[in-house]
Automatic annotation (TrEMBL):
Ubiquitin ligase protein which is a component of the N-end rule pathway. Recognizes and binds to proteins bearing specific N-terminal residues that are destabilizing according to the N-end rule, leading to their ubiquitination and subsequent degradation. Residues 102-186 form the UBR-type domain. Its EC number is 2.3.2.27. A zinc finger (UBR-type) spans 102-186. One of its GO terms (cellular component) is ubiquitin ligase complex. It catalyses: S-ubiquitinyl-[E2 ubiquitin-conjugating enzyme]-L-cysteine + [acceptor protein]-L-lysine = [E2 ubiquitin-conjugating enzyme]-L-cysteine + N(6)-ubiquitinyl-[acceptor protein]-L-lysine. The keyword Zinc applies. It comes from Schistosoma japonicum (Blood fluke). This is E3 ubiquitin-protein ligase. Keywords: Metal-binding, Transferase, Ubl conjugation pathway, Zinc, Zinc-finger. It holds the Pfam family zf-UBR. One of its GO terms (molecular function) is zinc ion binding. It is an enzyme of class 2 (transferase).
Length: 203
């Protein structure tokens, strides 16, 4: 049982220390086990289960969220579990370095020179920016270069208007989509499970 209603905490570090004490582990061990659960899907682990219940019962399921200090303590605990020693702000900056989108979506204004490839395109209005066209293998294709009079956006990577042969195998998109970091995605992917009903669970 970990009922924080009965305990007052002066600051978040004291709260983290309290949680670690109840689980009989250091904060480094706490984060390591939580990290392992998120990355490898070990959702039956005691640490993951405890943190999940703590989050659900003490943040949203009762009126306890009205205590701003306890809410701050829980928020800081989650920031530590997610970001570790690098800090939450640094983690957010790291996340911005990764691009998982297969689409270019570059937007241009009037008087921009773009391309259309009728060999790769599934729509007559499909357009490519110069970078994506150059990176793609369109040699021998039926294409043209045009000057945009009304603006537009690059369709490279959009499988609804362009054949896979026209964008999925380009060097440009292979570079961007290969920058995948499972550690950084694990928490975002699995913390959503905390929102599932746990009313039948007890500490």
């Amino acid at each position: 049982m970990m009922d924080i209603d009965e305990v007052e905490f002066s600051d978040p570090p004291e709260f983290v220390k309290y949680v670690c004490g109840r689980l009989n582990m250091t904060k480094e061990e706490l984060r390591e086990e939580f990290h392992d659960a998120c990355v490898n899907g070990h959702f039956d682990s005691p640490v993951y289960s405890t943190v999940r219940k703590l989050f659900r019962f003490h943040c949203f399921c009762t009126s306890r969220f009205r205590n701003k200090n306890k809410m701050l303590c829980i928020t800081k605990l989650f920031e530590y579990l997610i970001s570790g020693t690098i800090g939450f702000d640094n983690l957010r900056r790291r996340l911005k370095e990764y691009d998982y989108s297969a689409r270019c979506s570059l937007v241009w204004t009037t008087n921009y020179f773009a391309y259309r490839c009728r060999t790769c395109g599934m729509s007559p209005s499909m357009s490519l920016c110069s970078s994506c066209f150059t990176a793609g293998n369109h040699e021998g294709h039926d294409f043209n270069k045009f000057k945009s009079h009304a603006g537009g956006a690059c369709d490279c990577g959009d499988s609804s208007v362009m054949k896979k042969s026209g964008h999925f195998l380009t060097t440009y998109h292979q570079i961007n989509t290969s920058r995948y970091c499972i550690d950084l995605l694990a928490y975002k992917r699995y913390l959503g499970l905390f929102n599932r009903p746990v009313l039948s669970e007890k500490f």
